[in-house]
Design goal:
7 helices; 2 domains; alpha+beta; disordered N terminus; single chain; elongated; 186 residues
Length: 186
């Protein structure tokens, strides 16, 4: 009988995804290959850890414990990501600034996707069960039947009585062959 191997690709069972991404290219050609060799060793060790040992490893890398209900596979993947990120230096300063700016824009706007953010004054019209429903886009939300709403989804639910994606209900999402249901406002 052969001894157990620590190589991630060799441990993969037929039909199952590998818990560790396989390295691409020649390991010795990577910058700082000694650091990556150490990370590869740590990753291989993670595969042999019990779930409780993985939780301890999580606590060593994060200020809190892992989220409840996180599967062993996802726990390993998250730990692998964190180890690789630390070895490679993580996200660049420019990327972190861009992500912060995007997060700030998301918090300020009613919707994040610029493709579903019509201009102020735009009138959205949707026919539903024989009746035309008109929504006016305002600077800080939407107006429907004289009332202010922050979300198109709430308006769509009010009209239909069921949960709908507001942008989809009003035809603002891109679907093959469909054009948005927008009329130019005054």
């Amino acid at each position: 009988m052969t001894p157990p191997t620590h190589e991630a690709s060799a441990r993969q069972r037929c039909g199952e995804p590998s818990p560790v991404p396989c390295p691409v290219g020649n390991r010795t050609s990577r910058a700082g290959s000694a650091d990556f060799t150490e990370v590869d060793r740590q990753i291989a060790e993670l595969l042999d850890y019990s779930t409780s040992e993985l939780r301890i490893a999580w606590r060593q890398l994060h200020p809190t414990g892992p989220p409840r209900g996180l599967s062993r596979d996802l726990l390993i993947r998250a730990l692998v990501h964190q180890l690789q990120e630390r070895a490679a230096g993580g996200a660049s300063r420019a990327l972190r600034r861009r992500l912060q700016r995007l997060a700030g824009e998301f918090e300020k706007s009613a919707s994040f996707d610029p493709g579903i953010a019509p201009k102020t004054g735009t009138t959205l019209v949707r026919q539903w069960r024989g009746r035309a429903h008109t929504v006016v886009v305002r600077e800080n939300g939407f107006e429907y039947e004289g009332q202010h709403y922050r979300s198109l989804t709430v308006i769509a639910e009010r009209i239909t009585g069921a949960h709908w994606s507001g942008p989809r209900f009003f035809g603002l999402t891109k679907r093959a062959g469909a054009s948005p249901g927008i009329e130019a406002g005054p």
